[in-house]
């Protein structure tokens, strides 16, 4: 009963509107906007429509009536006041969500996959900023976006996510894989380490997969899908991506509204979050038609990300691979930004699976030829440090970025006040030893 009611409400709301916009991939040779303008609408032959449902007030009354009818029938089979209360909240949330989508259509809001793209004074202020003071920065973002679209958009589409969310990454990092915030978030989607691990990204001594554009996009799609499931509204989901779900939920409870623009007028969220959604919508509006706003650009080879990859079954240095392939080491590091030490991780840190290095397709065969000649690296879990004259444990801990208590734990008989120069102590970080370089076959 409930599902039929929800389907009916969505149909009736959409019956008073025109079709939503659709995002398509640009041809490979076309130097154009990040997203095209909506396709021209060709009107269909006129159909008979029930105009009783084309006004917000009557439509709202209709929804309320059917909500009550569906809820009352379902509630009869539910026992326990806690379960009944949870069920009421669930139905109310779903009906409100479907009603909002339908009413967005009736108000003429351009949507794609139920993602509303609006223009209001707050969005216009950010458009004006990007056209003037922020012009050079936004131009860099647009240039980078051309090289990331082909990689990220298919991943969002595969997860059933609105492709407009691509521009969330633009606002977060400017499509800079190495972007690092004061809050210690990093990568294309600016994940915090705790959230990254929850959504399957590895962050350790060797790897920081927040910097991998493919893996971080898959994780971001899952996270955004969870946020949308919780809030039922894309603007609230995006705001909570920035501020955290807890802060947005508190604002909703205190203001008793789920409208982002109302919440943005309050003191319950930070200024950064208030501007977060308008800033993204401004970027999206400009990127759909950059020439309209005076942005003309072509993709840059510096931001190129290869699609091909090769596997290694032992730790190797990227510099060694680059030397054998006769390409600059900085390019190989740029194509594999998640390898923060410039070395592929030991197999036990990646579940025993061979590690994939991203390289251009025309280098794949050459890599297979030089693969047996790569230096073998032996990784130990402890590094031995020889104490120098004048060194203290505090200096040593800072040098290796290891807590002092961990050094003391690994060296229980060590006295911080009696450090003898020349004595070796154990440091709990991996040590890398090059054992041999196989002869060229």
UniProtKB/TrEMBL annotation:
Residues 30-49 are annotated as: Disordered. It comes from the Bacteria. InterPro entries: LysM (IPR018392), LysM_dom_sf (IPR036779), Lysozyme-like_dom_sf (IPR023346), Transglycosylase_SLT_dom_1 (IPR008258). Pfam families: LysM, SLT. SMART domains: LysM. Residues 383-427 form the LysM domain. PANTHER family: MEMBRANE-BOUND LYTIC MUREIN TRANSGLYCOSYLASE C (PTHR37423:SF2), SOLUBLE LYTIC MUREIN TRANSGLYCOSYLASE-RELATED (PTHR37423). Belongs to the transglycosylase Slt family. This is Membrane-bound lytic murein transglycosylase D.
């Amino acid at each position: 009963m409930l599902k039929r009611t929800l389907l009916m409400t969505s149909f009736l709301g959409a019956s008073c509107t025109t079709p939503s916009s659709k995002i398509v991939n640009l041809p490979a040779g076309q130097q154009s906007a990040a997203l095209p303008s909506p396709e021209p609408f060709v009107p269909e032959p006129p159909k008979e429509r029930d105009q009783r449902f084309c006004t917000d007030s009557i439509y709202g009354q209709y929804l309320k009536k059917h909500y009550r009818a569906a809820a009352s029938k379902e509630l009869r089979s539910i026992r326990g006041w806690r379960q009944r209360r949870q069920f009421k909240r669930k139905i109310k949330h779903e009906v409100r969500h479907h009603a909002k989508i339908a009413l967005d259509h009736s108000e003429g809001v351009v949507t794609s996959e139920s993602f509303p793209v609006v223009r209001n004074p707050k969005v216009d202020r950010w458009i004006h900023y990007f056209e003037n003071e922020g012009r050079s920065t936004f131009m860099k973002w647009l240039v980078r976006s051309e090289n990331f679209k082909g990689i990220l958009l298919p991943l969002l589409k595969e997860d059933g996510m609105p492709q407009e969310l691509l521009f969330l990454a633009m606002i977060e990092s400017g499509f800079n894989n190495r972007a690092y915030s004061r809050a210690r978030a990093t990568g294309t989607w600016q994940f915090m380490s705790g959230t990254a691990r929850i959504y399957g990204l590895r962050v350790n001594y060797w790897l920081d997969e927040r910097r991998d554009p493919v893996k971080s996009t898959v994780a971001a799609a899952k996270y955004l899908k969870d946020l949308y499931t919780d809030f039922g509204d894309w603007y609230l989901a995006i705001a909570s991506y920035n501020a955290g779900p807890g802060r947005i939920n508190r604002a909703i409870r205190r203001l008793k509204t789920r409208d982002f623009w109302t919440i943005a007028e309050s003191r319950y969220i930070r200024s950064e979050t208030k501007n977060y959604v308008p800033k993204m919508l401004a970027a999206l509006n400009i990127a759909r038609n950059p020439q309209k706003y005076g942005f003309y650009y072509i993709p840059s080879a510096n931001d190129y990300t290869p699609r091909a990859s090769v596997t290694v079954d032992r730790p190797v240095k990227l510099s060694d691979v680059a030397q054998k392939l006769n390409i600059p080491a900085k390019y190989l590091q740029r194509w594999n930004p998640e390898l923060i030490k410039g070395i592929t991780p030991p197999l036990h840190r990646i579940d025993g699976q061979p590690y994939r290095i991203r390289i251009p397709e025309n280098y794949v065969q050459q890599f297979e030829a030089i693969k047996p000649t790569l230096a073998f690296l032996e990784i130990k879990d402890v590094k031995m440090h020889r104490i120098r004259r004048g060194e203290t444990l505090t200096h040593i801990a800072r040098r290796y970025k290891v807590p002092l208590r961990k050094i003391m734990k690994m060296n229980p008989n060590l006295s911080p006040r009696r450090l003898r120069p020349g004595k070796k102590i154990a440091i709990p970080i991996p040590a890398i030893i090059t054992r041999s370089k196989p002869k060229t076959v």
